[in-house]
């Protein structure tokens, strides 16, 4: 079981992240709920999953913050990577534990991603990376459906398969490179979309090579080539 809260947790109740057998958790649920910190929404306790996943979650968020901090000092430096690192460090001001564990896994959208994918389709420009990110937002918004599907699969006996041991250092680098590649693809498809629109409208062509977006992509791309050659 992951236990978070430090001195304040000892005085006012900790944030508990139990793992192991779900049936075993049900047997002690009412007891540990009384031990956990109490906030407006109820006790600060969430069953995490099988095995040692409860204690694992407590450990992981600190390492994730460090990884994103490191990434933000290299070729992946960006506002989104920076704030992701910051989010992993934030403590819950109204309860115990880290805020990241209490953020609802459901997001909305303003529509710009949808408009971009629509324009790409109308102009016959492939934009799979951008479209995939939009699909993830759609799935994120279907929280009730996702939870219902998970319950059905669990009743059918489909549980998470045991993961084989992995080289953590290699896994982190694989994820970094995947993020790097996805940024390059997104930039490239954005430039292709601008180019296709300029051909259709015959209005953007003169300034296409000097727009901040294209200049940013050019710099980013040559940095990628330099790193790849090294």
From TrEMBL:
Pathway: Carbohydrate degradation; pentose phosphate pathway; D-ribulose 5-phosphate from D-glucose 6-phosphate (oxidative stage): step 3/3. It comes from the Eukaryota. Residues 54-229 form the 6-phosphogluconate dehydrogenase C-terminal domain. The keyword Oxidoreductase applies. GO terms for biological process: D-gluconate metabolic process; pentose-phosphate shunt. Gene3D superfamilies: N-(1-d-carboxylethyl)-l-norvaline Dehydrogenase, domain 2 (1.10.1040.10), NAD(P)-binding Rossmann-like Domain (3.40.50.720). Its EC number is 1.1.1.44. GO terms for molecular function: NADP binding; phosphogluconate dehydrogenase (decarboxylating) activity. Keywords: Gluconate utilization, Oxidoreductase, Pentose shunt. Belongs to the 6-phosphogluconate dehydrogenase family. This is phosphogluconate dehydrogenase (NADP(+)-dependent, decarboxylating).
């Amino acid at each position: 079981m992951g236990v978070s809260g430090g001195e304040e947790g000892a005085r006012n109740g900790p944030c508990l992240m139990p793992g192991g057998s779900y049936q075993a958790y049900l047997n002690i649920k009412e007891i540990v709920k009384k031990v956990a910190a109490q906030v407006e929404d109820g006790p600060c306790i969430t069953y995490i999953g099988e095995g040692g996943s409860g204690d694992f979650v407590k450990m992981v968020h600190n390492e994730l913050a460090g990884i994103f901090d490191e990434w933000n000092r290299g070729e992946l430096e960006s506002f989104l990577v920076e704030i992701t690192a910051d989010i992993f460090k934030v403590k819950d001001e109204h309860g115990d534990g880290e805020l990241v564990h209490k953020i609802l896994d459901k997001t909305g959208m303003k529509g710009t991603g949808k408009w971009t994918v629509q324009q790409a389709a109308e102009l016959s420009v492939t934009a799979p990376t951008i479209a995939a990110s939009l699909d993830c937002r759609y799935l994120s918004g279907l929280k009730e459906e996702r939870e219902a599907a998970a319950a059905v699969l669990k009743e059918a006996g489909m549980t998470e398969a045991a993961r084989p041991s992995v080289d953590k250092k290699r896994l982190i680098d694989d994820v970094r490179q995947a993020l790097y590649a996805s940024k390059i693809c997104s930039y490239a498809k954005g430039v292709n979309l601008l180019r296709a629109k300029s051909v259709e409208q015959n209005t953007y062509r003169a300034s296409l090579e000097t727009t901040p977006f294209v200049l940013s992509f050019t710099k980013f791309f040559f940095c990628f080539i330099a790193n790849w050659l090294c």
